[in-house]
Amino acid sequence: MHDDSSDLDPPARRLLLAVDELLRLARASDDRTAWDRALSAAGLVAGLPGFLEPRYSPLRLLAITVYFDSCAATADRERLDLAIESLRRLRAPDADEEEAAHRGFTLAVLLNARYDLLSPAQGGGNPADLDEALAQPFNPRHSAATSLKGRLLRIRFERYGDTHDLDAAVEELRTARALAPADPAAGERLLATAALGDALRARGDFTGSLEDLDEAVELLRDVAETRRDRRPDALTALGVALLAHAQAADGAAAEHSAAEAVRVLERAVADTDAGHPDLPRRQAHLGDAFRTRARIRQDTDPGVVRDLHAALDHHETALALSDDDRWRPQTLAALATVHSDLGRRTPEPAALDTAVNAWQRAYDETPEDDLRRPYSLGNLCLERWHRALSEGFDAGRRDAEFRAVAAGWLDIADDVRAPAEWRALAAFRAATVLLRLNDPSAAVLAASKAVELLPLLAAPSRSRKEQEKTLAEWQRLPEESARIAVEIGDSRHALELLDTGRAVLWSHHGGLRDDAAELRAADPERAAALAELDAVARRALHGDAAARRTGVFRRRQELVDEIRRENPGVGRYLMPARYDELRESAADGPVVVVSAGPDGGFALALTDDRAAPLPIDLPGLTAAETGTHARRLVTAWNLVRLQPSSAEGHEALAECLDDLLPWLWERLAGPVLDTLSLSAPAGGELPRLWWSPCGPLAVLPLHAAGIPTAGHSVLDRVVPSCTPTVETLLRLRRAQRGRPGPEPPALLPVAVPGDPALPYAEDEVRAVAARLGRHASPPLLGPSATAGEVLRQLPRHDWVHFACHGLHRPLDASQGGLRLYDRTLTVLELAQARARPGGVAYLSVCWGAQGHRELPGEAVHPAAALLISGYEHVVSAGWTLDDDSASEVAEAVYAGLTAAPGTPSASGTARALHGAVTRLREAGREPRVWAPYVHFGL
Known about the structure:
This protein is an alpha/beta fold. The chain is built from 39 helices and 16 strands. The protein has a six-stranded mixed sheet with strand order 9-8-10-14-15-16, sandwiched between helices. It has a five-stranded mixed sheet with strand order 3-2-1-4-7, sandwiched between helices. A three-stranded antiparallel sheet has the order 11-12-13. α6 runs antiparallel to α7 (143-160), α10 runs antiparallel to α11 and α13 (279-296) runs parallel beside α15 (328-345). The longest helix has 29 residues, at 647-675.
């Protein structure tokens, strides 16, 4: 870069001096006319012949500075447009790194200003400006440039809700702060610190991370205490961070943060001039702080009502002062929320009417294309519902009000502009109202809408923890909806609801159904378009971005409708399987779906010859007792897991099973088998039966239910198997039918010996490999049994045998799995391993069939993962295995699979396991030894 003007010809040198002088005068006077003169002179630079040549570099840099300072001083649309277009023309092909970075930095600042400062009516909010700004070259060694990049990434997060942008923003801003002068009072350091604090606040607010929010508050408090210019800005940022901290924290920490947020935001409002454009937003933030403090305080605290009335005053003031339509719907919704809180405290007709009217106002004044409109409608319906239930409401009008409320919620459920969370909640609430109206058929249809949205609530773009948290909140919905359907005699619909609402986390992994792959093959163009829309539509809602994305949800639904209409092969794209398809799964024996409920449970038995599932009433199967047994069993397991050599855990487990297995027989298994007339025929094979349990029942060993001493047990009457969902079994059957014929098996034996707790692992896999002979690969033992090597070999084998430790993580089940030599092979990795279709996966592993403690019906465990990946038969254990018998059972199972002459066959896996377990039981072994074993699959 040229540091002086020595290469300039005389006219260009005179132009440089003139522009420099006009810039100095404009800065000194801050007069628009002076800035206009400076801009006119800068515009002459672009008209110079050959102005992009290197010798004109000093002039170009000076012109860039004029554009930047002018827009900072005046910020009007016309000036921004002129500056941006001029800077685009000032792109020199041979500019050095410093000049390119200077120009790019200035252009990014101006594009950001146009995007962020102007209203949509003025041309602001155009994502192309944001993308162009981020595409500029940023000097990674310059604090201001790195800080700008971080702020731009943060703004893009606000628009799209992509947490990758927010994480990147935090890292860029950390770098910017490290690059700034060490003096805390230095302007560049303060700006970088403030930007980092605000980004951490945004991330903590979005994720609920108290660690991020603690750091944000600390950083922003330092800025507020140090900064002398623009102090109200610093106080506002600190107050908003404290507010977020109060909403995420609990107890005394939440109370302290809320009280400080009120104090800080009061100072910010007091220090803001009456006509300042940010005053309405600061008033609204202060209203939010009062409302939050009211919610955190004890109900008996008289300050609650004072805080709520203070919140009303500040929100009303914000509305009166604001002429920016972008913020009005948000402030109206906040105001209505305060009225709702007051209505809850004083459920008198006047207070309830006020809350209804406030939400009606928010709804009426929200534009049609704003996503807050269905949000406000939902809350309006909720307030009308509460008012209709109150004692002071006119009983004669109540049913009419209920119908209006249900209709409003159904409108939201059908509104493809809205995200799945709002639609599902609205549909479920509509079902609740319709039940109150004694219209169960309509209630089932409404609940169905909610259940069918569950897969979208666990979209892959969300983190696994977010998916699990969301599903935990909704896990009772499918069972409650199915119960209504059973009560009105619609067992087909009940079964569809139960199957749609389980194993939702697996629905995106292709093993249960691979709609995306089928669509890519049938219509790659629409598949690509849908994937692009999903990338936006499935991102979590955040901040003010919501109002700008309403069209995405609508367009996505329109595209899905097109796919279903124009591609016959995928006509039921993203729709759950229907009963007429699901009953194919019962080709070899009944499939029984079981649910426990508040007043008793029910089972739905599928047989391939029935037009509808057979409902079986189970009055003794209550949710309360089921939960008690499940918790007791989990407690006993944990004692064994944490102290495997202690007798206490094993004794607790034995006592638990002594009570549990007879209870399961009397309440569940016995009535089901009796109703289906299932028992051993004289001189013939036992019939097959598949259990598909819902909710906490998935924790319990249904396959082992019985009173062996009395000759009553599941094992005496059927060969039992389990399946996470009926559709899982259906897909396995269809895949089996689609293969040309059985292939010779290829077994991969894997063992991690050397641990004293696994004394027989190596002997076990060598014995198994010997049984399979030429069909077995050399065992992967010890150091060769690495996760990478297993993943490399699995696709080439359709049989696999693992003898190793299992890692059970009850609150993070997807990160549990099989402990190999170098690391844990996780549940998610197993699901994506993709074996050759068919075959057997044998897990001689503890905890191989135990998943998430809060989501047992999701079946997030290694056994289900291997089923998803393509194995037709999976043998696993529900809890710890007895080392003395584990090898004995494994050898017995493989002996059964290789007993017939010729090629070993996987088809007899369930019967082989049944025989091995029955022999253990008949030899007098305790249930804790034989009951863990369970067969999944065909």
